[in-house]
Amino acid sequence: MDMPSADVIVVGLGAMGSASLYQLARRGARVIGIDRYGPPHIYGSSHGETRITRQAIGEGAAYVPLVLRSHQIWRDLEAQTGTSLFWACGGLVLSGQVGQALHHGKPQFLERTLEAARQFGIAHEVLDAAQIQERFPQFILQGDETGYFEPGAGLLYPERCVQVQLKQAQRLGAVVHTGETVRRIVPLNDGVEVETDQTRYRAAKVVVSVGAWAAQLLGEPLAQVLRVYRQVLFWLEAPDPQVYGPERFPIFIWMFGSAEGEHFYGFPQVSQGVKVATEQARTPTHPDQVERQVSEAETWAFFTRYVQGRLKGLGPGCLKSATCLYTSTVDGDFILDFHPDSERILVASPCSGHGFKHSAAVGEALAGLALHGRSPFDLTPFRLAQRPVWG
Ligand SMILES: Cc1cc2nc3c(=O)[nH]c(=O)nc-3n(C[C@H](O)[C@H](O)[C@H](O)COP(=O)(O)OP(=O)(O)OC[C@H]3O[C@@H](n4cnc5c(N)ncnc54)[C@H](O)[C@@H]3O)c2cc1C
């Protein structure tokens, strides 16, 4: 029997993979998507109900065209499917005088955000503590804070985004295999062979978007530039569902000190409880050996260090929690590049904890690279060779 074949195979169908599959199918390519689980699922990096999106990207100017295009794609998908994906409830980046904690590996995050807004003409306001307090009385401030408020920022529903793009891709002819694990990718002279735990496939190109499993599947040189970190999300009890609702409360990122970890972020209430979280980059883990349980001690430690005295009436009751994986480079920047061993293999992972908002356009970039060898976006800042090696 002939091996199943395609123009492009997409391995891993989370945020990046579902977007790539959809964009490839839209361009008329014959595509096969393969995932070891059944996305959307809770084992990788694209679950937990909500993701922040903002247009002025403090992580770097190169990201701004990706997020602007992603917002258009989300809106197009909403129009095509009637599914709500993006809620522009506004976003606040907040920093105290001493609030210089790194965010996504970047210092001076508020200043960098403001710079990006000015460079790209993104609507925003700069608010002092009294103005923030008046507009959002849910925050308890010290009085020395500055806020960058972006009305066009908001939240995405990640599981819906993944699901909708997979469905649309399938409607356009993409074939999706779930519950199938890719074991090996072998470049050949005239194509590439993808070996799974069930069969083998052939294609002209492969997009590898396996998130936290990138080092495991691709080995070096990915393994030396990536680390996986367990993160925890908490849904805290709110006094009244209206108080933190999206009509009254924005997504926020708050740098309240300069020491490691002295920042956290949160969302308006869109389900049971208000989702809040911080980030950790101290203890690496392995994607197949992550502690998925969140202890009461962990929840209490989070509440007392971050929420108590900063968000009025929130917690300490925690309605639920979840773990999720960051796969981070040293500098927090993405890898969107050909594999150094083969122009037939594209690597679209991972995104150091800030990739979701860009993922729809990343799919477009990868489809362009896979089919025509060029992307509509400048991807030079995201080259693998530019990523430092973890010490
Ligand atoms: C707690 C948390 C909060 C975040 N908050 C934000 C935010 O507010 N805003 C934002 O923009 N970004 C945020 N991010 C980052 C963003 O969610 C990620 O960058 C993005 O989801 C990564 O998508 P991915 O496609 O690389 O990985 P995933 O979505 O995990 O997809 C990888 C897929 O590959 C599959 N796979 C793995 N190995 C194999 C194999 N061998 N064979 C077949 N399939 C395989 C997996 O099953 C999985 O479905 C956050 C991440 C986390 C964890």
TrEMBL record:
Keywords, A to Z, come to: FAD, Flavoprotein, Oxidoreductase
Which top EC class is given? oxidoreductase
Q: Select a single GO molecular function from the record's annotations and give it.
A: sarcosine oxidase activity
The UniProt record lists the EC number as 1.5.3.1
Tell me one Pfam family matched here: DAO
**Residue ranges annotated for the FAD dependent oxidoreductase domain, each copy included:** 7-368
InterPro entries cross-referenced by the UniProt entry: FAD-dep_OxRdtase, FAD/NAD-bd_sf, MTOX
Q: Does the keyword Flavoprotein apply?
A: yes
Q: Which cofactor does it need?
A: FAD
Which NCBIfam families did the record assign? PRK11259.1 (NF008425)
Q: What is this protein called?
A: Monomeric sarcosine oxidase
- Tell me which species this is from: Meiothermus hypogaeus
